[in-house]
């Protein structure tokens, strides 16, 4: 379980998170939506302790991250896998070495165990045999798949996705969305997807939270958002600008 209690975060004079409260149960598939720059990725970084709140608390599996030293935080982070927006692959390493990186860094795995886990992860993301390639040889969609394989190779309890379909064409984006669902179902992991792509939301989420003006503005099943008459939700879901915000 993840709990965020009245979290506030500012950068200079800009208040990005302004009293965020949320709870995510084990096994849930949640999408966090909101306009660009609203703090979605900042919130994600709080969940794994990469950022500390100015006020408030973040709890993971019954533990308060604020009371932890770096060694304790590292232990909590091992509960998580994360697919970064740009996949964040090391261009100088092969696909195999990229996926094996977190296992080797942890240091408790034999080479045979690493090989088995990497090959298993590649199979799960439909890239068997791709371990010898370099990232430069991969398409954008394949890079995302490799990033996901690295995120799950440690067999985490929670997988976080930061804008997983950004920069992909609609067909490739749809394949990534269905892959996220498959990983969630096969590994029985908690899934948290930060996105502004409402097509993705339809596929990957069973619950949606909307971040607006630093707070959770709405929380419910996807249908609540697609059928909502709330002007803020309706404009976001349908990609309609607010005339009052247009700067000529």
How would you characterize the overall build of this protein?
The chain has helices at residues 40-47, 70-77, 95-106, 111-124, 140-152, 170-187, 198-204, 222-226, 231-238; strands at residues 2-11, 14-24, 29-33, 55-60, 63-64, 80-83, 158-162, 190-194, 207-212, 215-220. It is an alpha/beta fold. The chain has one domain (25-50, 69-240): Rossmann fold, CATH 3.40.50.300. α6 packs parallel to α7 (198-204). The protein is globular and about 55 Å long.
Please specify the SSE layout and strand pairing.
Elements (H helix, E strand, L loop, with lengths): L1 E10 L2 E11 L4 E5 L6 H8 L7 E6 L2 E2 L5 H8 L2 E4 L11 H12 L4 H14 L15 H13 L5 E5 L7 H18 L2 E5 L3 H7 L2 E6 L2 E6 L1 H5 L4 H8 L10
Parallel strand pairs: 3-8, 3-9, 6-7, 7-8
Antiparallel strand pairs: 1-2, 1-4, 4-5, 9-10
Helix pairs in contact: 3-4, 3-5, 4-5, 6-7
How many helices does DSSP assign?
9
> Which runs of at least 5 residues are low in confidence (pLDDT < 50)?
none
What is the rounded Rg? 18 Å
Distance between the termini: 46 Å
The secondary-structure class comes to alpha/beta
What share of residues are in beta strands?
Answer: 15-25%
Estimated helix fraction: 25-40%
Shape: globular
CATH homology group: P-loop containing nucleotide triphosphate hydrolases
- State the CATH class: Alpha Beta
How do you describe this structure in short?
The protein is an alpha/beta fold and 248 residues long. The protein contains 9 helices and 10 strands. 38% of the residues lie in helices and 24% in strands.
């Amino acid at each position: 379980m993840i709990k965020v209690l009245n979290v506030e975060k500012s950068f200079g004079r800009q208040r990005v998170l302004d009293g965020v409260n949320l709870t995510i149960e084990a096994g849930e598939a949640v999408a966090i939506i909101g306009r660009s720059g609203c703090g979605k990725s900042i919130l994600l970084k709080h969940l794994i302790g990469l950022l500390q709140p100015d006020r408030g608390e973040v709890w993971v599996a019954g533990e308060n991250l604020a009371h932890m030293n770096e060694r304790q935080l590292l232990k909590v982070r091992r509960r998580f896998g994360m697919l970064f927006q740009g996949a964040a692959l090391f261009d100088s390493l092969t696909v195999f070495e990229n996926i094996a990186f977190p296992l080797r860094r942890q240091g408790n795995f034999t080479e045979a165990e690493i090989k088995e886990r990497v090959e298993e992860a590649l199979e799960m993301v439909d890239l068997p045999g791709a371990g010898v390639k370099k990232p430069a040889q991969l398409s954008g969609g394949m890079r995302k798949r490799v990033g996901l394989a690295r995120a799950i190779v440690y067999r985490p309890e929670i997988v976080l996705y930061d804008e997983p379909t950004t920069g992909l064409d609609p067909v490739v984006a749809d394949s990534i969305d269905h892959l996220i669902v498959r990983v969630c179902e096969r590994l029985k992991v908690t899934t948290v997807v930060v996105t502004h792509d409402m097509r993705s939301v339809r596929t990957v989420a069973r619950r949606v939270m909307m971040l607006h003006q630093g707070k959770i503005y709405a929380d419910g099943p996807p249908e609540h958002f697609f059928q909502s008459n709330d002007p803020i939700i309706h404009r976001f879901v349908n990609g309609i600008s607010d005339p009052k915000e247009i700067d000529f």
